[in-house]
Every structure is written in structure tokens, then in C-alpha cells.
Automatic annotation (TrEMBL):
Keyword Transmembrane among UniProt keywords: yes
PANTHER family (UniProt xref): BETA-LACTAMASE-RELATED DOMAIN-CONTAINING PROTEIN, D-ALANYL-D-ALANINE-CARBOXYPEPTIDASE/ENDOPEPTIDASE AMPH
Record carries keyword Transmembrane: yes
Organism the protein comes from: hydrothermal vent metagenome
Residue span, Beta-lactamase-related domain: 52-372
Protein name: Beta-lactamase-related domain-containing protein
Transmembrane segments: 507-526, 547-565, 585-609, 621-641
Entry keywords, A to Z: Membrane, Transmembrane, Transmembrane helix
Regions annotated as coiled coil: none
InterPro entries, alphabetized: AmpC-like (IPR050491), Beta-lactam-related (IPR001466), Beta-lactam/transpept-like (IPR012338)
Length: 646
């Protein structure tokens, strides 16, 4: 996953758990059910053949090295299989029972399950201030409201995004406590107000599991989850610390370059392992799906009561019942009228997805050891549902029964709220912009990362729009009734409407004008070489200064291009080396540009009074100085200067 995409690649009941107290775990053991061997039905055999065909075609088209997949249904593992290879030499075949794939952020479902297990024991109140459970970490007060576990589980704590989570190696020596304090993000929204995916917030929840249980998170899941579920081929440890018997079966992350397959760099997240470091097999993940489809119990093992699991899969916030959201850590939405829960995951060279359909008693897990394309991982659950429900074609969106004047209130530029607000990497938010426009027929268009989707108002639902595939976006309003943000179909992203000064287009305009007038400044200097020049000392000084400042702008643009090319080659695995030299040099030039802009603005008075220039020369100098001032203002607003990179 490339750097800009990552920063782009890389959500009310009465207070108190007592108001929704779950049943205590049963004191008597649950009857054990022996899983006898079974012959698949004709329908199941056809489904398996259908999936085999899709995966084979996809792997051939996209040069995907290896895939693992498992499907469970009605309390059984239909199959757990491997496809392709898991090494660059193409010698080791993927195996659904033995090969470990990195599941990325699906690891977070273990955090949220652990939290609910402790909540059932009345050790965590989901509506209490998390500070009462934390040891060595304190969340600062803000907005007159505390952050609760419910906020963390819904990705609604209000934290800005922090790149620091991905800058630690596995041998950094930092504890989770130290890392959380070092990388603590600023609170930028009131708790509950916005959905914004937060790795740091999930890590904070894992820290609470540790502080409440008295053991490390890794120990907790081994004892309370992996052991009882016989998930012996699932680990939170990285390759250097992994059991040797598991390490030899760990799939290599691969990338296709120049027609050949190469090993990709291994992504390390050090102390943040709970949020994304788990490696597992398709077979083990079948057990994980079955325990959740069994509402917390399966084959004699009970992690939590059915009532607690109902809470786990319920939405704590009810502000968008018609759209995608987060149900206590599990992403939830509806596809073809079927509600599902799940989570995706991505590391440097792995894409994974887990989707559970309680109504159908069906679960799908899939992972691939290449991040070159994620189409299969993201779409195969939908294709399976299409198959099981008889096929489906997208709806033909009819022109809305509203005028473009009605929809114009939604038009504008929106920025993804999963971004930094206070640090240098705010600059990369320009790559996660949503541009919304309308046409005269009443259609609404949303453009993100170069892709445009057409939406129409959902009948009878204010501020809800749907595309032909059933994906919905929902707009939110402020107290004055003005549209200020929207949430998309991902469950975990919201976009904030921005004014002109915060619009990335304004940054581009300021940079463009500074470049334009730098060019005309140099062109004017070249033209004046053949003409007599004023010997006024101030005029000569200002001529030289403007020439030098124009050169500085060109140098700054050059360092920006260098930085963009450098970071375009960055992967998540490279982030421990962030900030790179190109970032440091570019920021240094940016600071000098700001100083030069200030000097140019200050020099306007002597330019008009003492330079001896013509009116047109003075006017050009003025607009050049103003363009520099505009650029300097944008560099400050976008945190290119006067901010940290950490």
C-alpha cells in the first residue's frame, strides 16, 4: 500500500453497563458437540467449485501469488483451502490448514471480543471514562466529555490520525504504554460526533485489556481465546519471535515486479501488535468465525453469553440506522438485504477480509499474500451472496424527483476525517478529498481518488443517498441545519466539509501563482539585461532580492517533487524510516520560503517609495509578494512548517 493511499489504505443508551447488564457466563459447561466428517451437499459442492473458478480467474488476471480462504456454514467448516504459492521461488503451495497469512486489522476483532468478555465480568463499564482503567496513560480532558470504551469500539473517540503507530520496529524495545504516550493524538472532535478509524484508539483498548486483566494482551488471547478454540496456528508474534514450527509455515509477502515475483518488505508495528500483527490459517479463522456465528459459543466453548454477544453486534450510536456503521468494533452494513458483520485487514503485502452473515449462518475469510490488487479480497464475499441469493444486477438509478437547486446544498469539497490536524502529515490529506457535485437532472456525484460514483436520494430518507450497488452515503448537519459532513459505505470513514481556505484547491492555487510570478520575475530580469537599469540602490537591492526569492520558489518546488516521488515509493513497511530525508529538506526550504514571503511583504513600502521603478514594475513586484504571502499562509495552514512530523 503506497504512502498517500495509506494516509488516505493507510465509528444512545442509558449510561453505565448496569443498564445493559449481560448475563453472566454459565456455571455449568456447555454440551460438547463432536464435529463428525460430512459429505458436502450438491449445493455446497457447486459453491466450492464456483469459488475455485473465481479465485483461479482472478489470480491468473492479476498475477496474485497466493490466496487462502475458508467458508463456514450452519456450524460447519465447508472448506479451508489454499491456492497458489507462498514463496518467491514458487516452490511452497498455500495450504488452508497449515499456512499462516497475516490478517492485519482483523486482529482488532480479538481486541473487541476481549473487551466484551471483560465487560461481561463487570471489569469494564463500556460507558465509563477509560481513564479509570488506564495505568501509565492519561487521556487529556477535552470537549467537556470523557472518552468511553463505547467510543473506542465505534471509532468515535474523536482522535486525529497519527502516523506514529506505523513507525516502530518489532525490536524497538518500547512497551505499549510508552508507545501510546509517545504517539498520543490530539482530540479534534467531541466523543461520538464523528466516525474516524483509529489504530491508536484500538491500541488504547488493548492496553485497557492488559491493565484490567493483569496480563499482556498476547497472554490474554492465548489463554482466553486461542487455547479454548484450539487455534494453535494463530499467533500475535512477529517472525523473529514466532515459534519455529509456525515460522516455517508463514506465507511470505510478495510483490510482482517486472514480470517476476519478489519478496516484499515485512511490515513491523512493534508495540502496536494487537491492532494488526496476528497471523493465522484459514482453518483457525474458521473457528473464529464459528464462535461468533454461534453468538459467543461453539462446540462446547463459550467466550461470552449470548446476551453479551448481542451487545457486541449491536450499534451503540443510532444516528445512521440506514447506513454502514461500527457495531462495537465489528463493521456492519447491509448487502442485498442481508446484514453482515466483519472486518478487513491490510499490511504491507497482505490483504484480508472476514465477513459474517448471521441471518444465513455463513462466514467467509480470505487472505492474499500480495497487496498489488485487492479486488478479490473485497468482492468475493459479495459474489458468494450473489450466488446464494440467485444473482443480482445493479439498480438503474432514475433521475431524482428533486431539482439540482435542492441538492446543491450537498455540493462542495470534503476531507476525510482520518487525517492529522496538528502535524506535518496533514498535508497528505489532499489525497483523501471527496468532491461532490450535482447535475441539472438531480443526480449527485461523489469523486474520490479519481473515481466517480453516481448517487440518488433514497425515497423517504432525508440526507440519505444510494448508488446502483446499494452503497449509501449519509449527510450530517450542524445545529443551524447546514450540511457539514457525510459518512460513506465503509462503516469507518466520515468526510468534513471544508471552506475555501481549507480547500486543497486553494493550496494548489497559491503554489501555482507563486510559480507563475517567479517565472515572470526571472523573465523580466532576463529582458532587462539588454536595457539600461536604474542605479537607485534600493531598486537594485530589491531586484536582486526578487530574483533570489524566485529561485528559492523553484528550489522549493523541486524539493516537493523529490518528496512526492520519494514517498510514492514508500510502503507501510518503510514507515519506521519516516520522516525521510526528502521530507526534512522540503520542510527546510518551506521555512525559508515563509521567511522570504515575510521579507517580500515588508519590502513593499520601499518598493513603492524608494525603488525608482515604473508603475508596472512596482505592480508586478506587489503581486509577486502577495502570491508569496498566500503560499506562506497555505504552508502554515497545512502544517508544512511550524509543526512536528512525529
Amino acid at each position: 500500500m503506497r504512502f498517500p493511499v495509506l494516509l488516505a489504505v493507510l465509528s444512545i443508551l442509558p449510561a453505565g453497563l448496569a443498564a445493559q447488564a449481560p448475563d453472566a457466563a454459565p456455571s455449568t459447561p456447555v454440551e460438547t458437540i463432536e464435529l463428525a466428517a460430512f459429505e458436502p451437499t450438491r449445493e455446497e459442492a457447486v459453491l466450492e467449485a464456483y469459488i475455485d473458478g473465481i479465485i483461479a480467474a482472478y489470480m491468473r488476471e492479476h498475477d496474485t501469488p497466493g490466496v487462502t480462504l475458508s467458508v463456514v456454514s450452519h456450524g460447519r467448516v465447508l472448506f479451508a483451502k489454499g491456492y497458489g504459492v507462498v514463496d518467491a521461488q514458487g516452490q511452497i503451495p498455500a495450504n488452508g490448514q497449515e499456512t499462516l497469512f497475516r490478517i492485519g486489522s482483523i486482529s482488532k476483532t480479538f481486541i473487541w471480543t476481549a473487551v466484551m468478555m471483560l465487560a461481561e465480568q463487570n471489569l469494564i463499564d463500556l460507558d465509563a471514562d477509560v481513564n479509570q482503567y488506564l495505568k501509565g496513560v492519561t487521556i487529556p480532558d477535552a470537549f467537556g466529555a470523557p472518552i468511553t470504551m463505547n467510543h473506542l469500539m465505534a471509532h468515535r473517540a474523536g482522535f486525529e490520525n497519527t502516523i506514529g503507530v506505523f513507525t516502530h520496529t518489532d525490536d524497538s524495545g518500547l512497551s505499549l504504554t510508552e508507545a501510546l504516550n509517545r504517539d498520543m493524538p490530539k482530540r479534534v472532535f467531541a466523543p461520538g460526533a464523528r466516525t474516524s478509524y483509529s489504530n491508536w484508539g484500538a491500541a488504547l483498548a488493548a492496553k485497557i485489556v492488559e491493565d484490567v486483566s493483569g496480563v499482556s494482551f498476547e497472554t490474554f488471547i492465548k489463554i482466553e481465546m486461542l487455547g479454548p478454540l484450539a487455534m494453535s496456528r494463530t499467533t500475535l508474534s512477529g517472525p523473529t519471535k514466532m515459534n519455529a514450527s509456525l515460522r516455517e509455515h508463514l506465507a511470505a509477502g510478495l510483490t510482482v515486479e517486472g514480470g517476476g515475483v519478489k519478496d516484499a518488505a515485512y511490515m513491523q508495528i512493534g508495540p502496536y501488535a494487537p491492532v494488526g500483527a496476528i497471523a493465522s490459517t484459514a482453518q483457525d479463522m474458521s473457528q473464529w468465525m464459528l464462535i461468533h456465528l454461534g453468538r459467543g459459543a461453539f462446540n462446547g466453548v463459550r467466550l461470552m453469553s449470548k446476551k453479551s454477544h448481542e451487545i457486541l453486534w449491536s450499534r451503540r450510536f443510532n444516528d445512521r440506522p440506514d447506513g454502514a456503521d461500527v457495531a462495537h468494533g465489528f463493521l456492519t452494513k447491509t448487502y442485498r438485504g442481508v446484514e453482515f458483520y466483519g472486518h478487513g485487514g491490510a499490511t504491507n503485502a497482505f490483504y484480508s477480509n472476514m465477513v459474517l452473515y448471521p441471518e444465513l449462518e455463513l462466514g467467509v475469510f480470505i487472505s492474499q499474500n500480495s497487496a498489488d490488487d485487492r479486488t478479490l479480497v473485497s468482492t468475493i464475499p459479495d459474489l458468494i451472496i450473489d450466488r446464494l441469493t440467485g444473482g443480482w444486477t445493479g439498480a438503474d438509478l432514475q433521475p431524482a424527483d428533486v431539482s439540482s437547486q435542492t441538492l446543491v446544498e450537498y455540493a462542495g469539497t470534503y476531507l476525510n476525517n482520518r487525517r492529522s490536524f496538528t502535524k506535518f502529515d496533514k498535508l497528505f490529506a489532499v489525497s483523501v478529498t471527496a468532491q461532490i457535485s450535482v447535475d441539472e437532472k438531480g443526480a449527485l456525484f461523489v469523486e474520490t481518488q479519481g473515481k466517480v460514483r453516481n448517487y440518488a436520494p433514497l425515497a423517504g430518507k432525508a440526507d440519505v443517498f444510494e448508488d446502483r450497488y446499494g452503497n449509501r452515503i449519509i449527510f450530517g448537519r450542524n445545529d443551524n441545519g447546514a450540511v457539514t459532513f457525510f459518512t460513506d459505505a465503509s462503516s469507518v470513514h466520515s468526510y468534513e466539509r471544508v471552506n475555501t481556505i481549507q480547500n486543497p484547491a486553494t493550496l494548489n492555487l497559491a503554489l501555482g501563482l507563486a510559480i507563475l510570478f517567479s517565472i515572470t520575475t526571472w523573465a523580466g530580469a532576463w529582458r532587462r539585461q539588454s536595457r539600461p537599469v536604474s542605479h537607485n540602490a534600493m531598486g537594485v537591492l530589491l531586484n536582486r532580492m526578487s530574483f533570489g526569492v524566485a529561485g528559492l520558489v523553484f528550489a522549493f518546488v523541486g524539493t516537493m517533487v523529490w518528496m512526492m516521488l520519494d514517498l510514492a515509493a514508500f510502503s507501510v513497511a518503510d514507515l519506521p524510516a519516516y520522516p525521510s530525508l526528502s521530507v526534512t529538506v522540503m520542510r527546510g526550504f518551506a521555512l525559508v520560503v515563509v521567511a522570504a514571503a515575510f521579507a517580500s511583504l515588508v519590502s513593499l513600502w520601499p518598493a513603492w517609495v524608494r525603488s525608482g521603478w515604473s508603475f508596472w514594475r512596482k505592480s508586478h513586484y506587489t503581486v509577486f509578494a502577495l502570491s508569496l504571502g498566500g503560499l506562506a499562509l497555505m504552508l502554515v495552514i497545512w502544517n508544512v512548517v511550524f509543526s512536528s512530523t512525529g
